[in-house]
Write a sequence for this structure.
């Protein structure tokens, strides 16, 4: 029978095994997230047939290393961050357990998944972490009408759409000021593209690789010009 009841101690051990230790308070929150994910998954198929350890090793692992990657990007003190196609809250919710900078919005058009994320966030009480239930192209307009800035400092994507199409799609959404250019971060199974493949209006920034699911995955960052 799969182990569907994560504990703080089991999460601490699982993170250590992947090479990215977390503290007990973070492990408690990650265990609570995984517990809810497994319960909802039985009814909604959020992550396919799976147990929490497999989800941790194959999906949460991205968030563990992404937290360190974002911390090194030199973002503004309080960035507005959008996570497109947030789905079941991966990588965003585990990421926010570890990386709390700025105002973070999980953007998801599918209502049931948005409902799941809102329910989990209500339990975890993560600061300035919210769900936008709707289309990605509508997010900034609606957020700006409620008092947020009109452009984003950071947009993250894992498989929301092909990366070149994504860069074209989000270019007008990112902040561009003399002292700060908005950034895109893409989670990928592939090494970064050649400079000649990067669309006009962008330049490749920091890149990192990390071990995941027996292979290697990558973060690519792009700066809007």
């Amino acid at each position: 029978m799969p182990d569907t009841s994560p504990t703080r101690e089991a999460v601490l051990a699982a993170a250590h095994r992947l090479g990215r230790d977390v503290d007990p308070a973070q492990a408690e929150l990650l265990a609570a997230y995984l517990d809810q994910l497994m319960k909802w998954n039985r009814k909604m198929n959020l992550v396919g047939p799976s147990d929490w350890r497999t989800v941790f090793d194959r999906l949460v692992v991205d968030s563990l290393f992404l937290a360190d990657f974002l911390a090194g990007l030199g973002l503004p003190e309080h960035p507005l961050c959008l996570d497109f196609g947030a789905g079941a809250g991966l990588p965003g919710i585990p990421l926010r357990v570890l990386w709390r900078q700025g105002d973070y919005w999980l953007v998801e058009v599918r209502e049931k998944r948005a409902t799941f994320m809102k329910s989990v966030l209500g339990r975890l009480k993560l600061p300035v972490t919210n769900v936008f239930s709707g289309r990605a192209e509508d997010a900034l307009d609606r957020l700006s009408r409620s008092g947020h800035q009109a452009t984003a400092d950071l947009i993250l994507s894992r498989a929301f759409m092909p990366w070149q199409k994504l860069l074209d799609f989000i270019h007008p959404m990112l902040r561009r000021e003399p002292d700060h250019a908005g950034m895109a971060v893409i989670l990928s199974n592939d090494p970064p593209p050649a400079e000649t493949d990067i669309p006009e209006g962008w330049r490749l920034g920091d890149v990192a690789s990390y071990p995941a699911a027996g292979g290697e995955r990558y973060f690519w960052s792009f700066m809007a010009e």
Remarks:
- DSSP finds seven helices and nine strands in the chain.
- Residues 24-44 form the longest helix (21 residues).
- The mean pLDDT is 94.
- The longest strand covers residues 202-212.
